[in-house]
Amino acid sequence: MFVSLTEQGEQLRIDSESAVAEVQKEILAPLNENEQEVLCSLLKRIADSNNHLSRVPIRL
For the chain, what is the domain count? Predict the structure, then answer.
């Protein structure tokens, strides 16, 4: 199955990018840059390792 965003959905995604980046910055603020990188790397590894358990797995 292939899913794509409508023009309106794509615009909403673009418009929300800066807000998402700002919230991520606030959430990660207690960690220094190295800690942020380690955390994100570990979370990515967990997500990638469990992708097959998702109801909508990402096909890599």
Answer: 1
The amino acid that residue 57 corresponds to is P
Rounded CA-CA distance 49/60 in Å is 12
Q: Is residue 2 part of a domain?
A: no
Domain that holds residue 35: 7-53
Model confidence, pTM: 0.68
Provide CB contacts within 8 A for 60, sequence distance 6+: 51
Q: What is the pLDDT of residues 25-59, one digit of tens each?
A: 999 999 999 999 999 999 999 999 999 898 878 87
Pick the closest to residue 27 from 51, 43, 9 (CA basis). 43
Quick check: is 59 in a domain?
Answer: no
